[in-house]
Amino acid sequence: MRKVKRRLKMSKFERLVYVFTVFMLALSPFALVFSQATLSEVNFEVEKLNKQIDTQEKKNESLTMKINELASLEKIQEIAKEQGLTYNNHNIRSITED
Predict the structure, then answer these.
(1) Main-chain phi, psi angles of 3, to 5 degrees
(2) What is the structure's pLDDT at 97?
(3) How does DSSP assign 22-58, residue by residue?
(4) Residue 87 — φ and ψ, nearest 5°?
(5) How many beta carbons lie within 10 A of that of residue 77, not counting itself?
(6) Which of 14, 48, 53, 72 is 20 to 30 A from residue 90's alpha carbon, by CA?
(7) What's the CA gap between 57 and 69, in Å, rounded?
(8) Among 66, 70, 46, 68, CA closest to 58
(9) Are 47 and 40 in contact (CB under 8 A)?
(10) 98 has a pLDDT exceeding 70
(11) CB under 8 Å to 75, separation ≥6 — which residues?
C-alpha cells in the first residue's frame, strides 16, 4: 500500500497572513528594545530639565531675598544718609479724603 501525501493548499491571503505574522513576531523584540531605549532617553532629559528648574528656582528665590533686603526701610535710610539726605517729618503731608 502506498501512502498518499496530502498537501494542504493555502490561499494567497492565508500565506500573506502567515508571512505577516512571522514577520511581526521576528520584529517585535527589536521594536521593544527601541521603545525602551527611547523611553530611557526621554526620562534622562526630563531629569536634566527638572534639575535646571530647581537651580533656576533657587536663583529666583535668592534674587527675591536680595530685592527684599535692598527695598527694606533700613537700607533706604542708610543709602539716603550716605547721599546726604535727611528725614524731616515736618515736610510730610497727609492727604485725606472727606
Answers:
(1) -90, 135
(2) 74
(3) HHHHHHHHHHHHHHHHHHHHHHHHHHHHHHHHHHHHH
(4) -95, 120
(5) 13
(6) 72
(7) 18
(8) 66
(9) no
(10) no
(11) 69
Cell numbers at 8, concatenated: 494542504
Task: Please count the other Cβ atoms lying within 10 Å of the Cβ belonging to residue 45.
Answer: 10
Alpha-carbon gap, residue 45 to 38, rounded angstroms: 11
Q: Would you say 75 and 69 are in contact if contact means Cβ atoms under 8 Å apart?
A: yes
| pLDDT tens digits, 12-71 | 899 999 999 999 999 999 999 999 999 999 999 999 999 999 999 999 999 999 999 888
Rounded Cα distance between 50 and 19, Å, is: 46
Q: Enter the C-alpha cell of residue 80.
A: 539716603
Query: Euclidean distance between the first and final Cα of the chain, in Å?
Result: 126
Alpha helices in 71-85 (DSSP H): 73-82
Q: Which amino acid makes up residue 82?
A: E
